[in-house]
Amino acid sequence: MASRLTEISLDCHDPDRLADFWCAVLDWVVLHREPGLVEVGPAGRDDRELLEAVRSGPVAPTLFLAQVPEEKVTKNRVHFDVSPVDGTQEDEVERILALGATRADIGQSGEESWTVLADPEGNEFCVLRSLAPGHFTL
């Protein structure tokens, strides 16, 4: 018996704005929208196909953006790591900054191989090394 990671929930003030941001960063789409709640994820599967995929093995989780009144107070205890797949890490950082991210200082030394950014509501995430052909091989 096993469970699968199927959704990640992120509290926020403006789910629509964060949905636009994360869809642009990850090349995802809005899967469901209602007042105060937006679900984003990879495009292309109907519900029946997705259910079968989840039952047979891990799939990319969707992201639920839920509106809450509280402010973000401290550094996230959990954060996302993203890896560019078709360009350099530096180019991806610049692209994400242009989408509305900001640089975040959470006490890094400056020697890290990743770059810490924050989404438009201040949730930290890291841009890791590039996985693009020519930048990463096994």
Automatic annotation (TrEMBL):
Pfam families linked: Glyoxalase_6
Classification via PANTHER family: CONSERVED PROTEIN (PTHR35908:SF1), HYPOTHETICAL FUSION PROTEIN (PTHR35908)
Record-annotated Glyoxalase-like domain positions: 8-128
UniProt-recorded name of the protein: VOC family protein
InterPro entries: Glyas_Bleomycin-R_OHBP_Dase, Glyoxalase_6
Top-level taxon: Bacteria
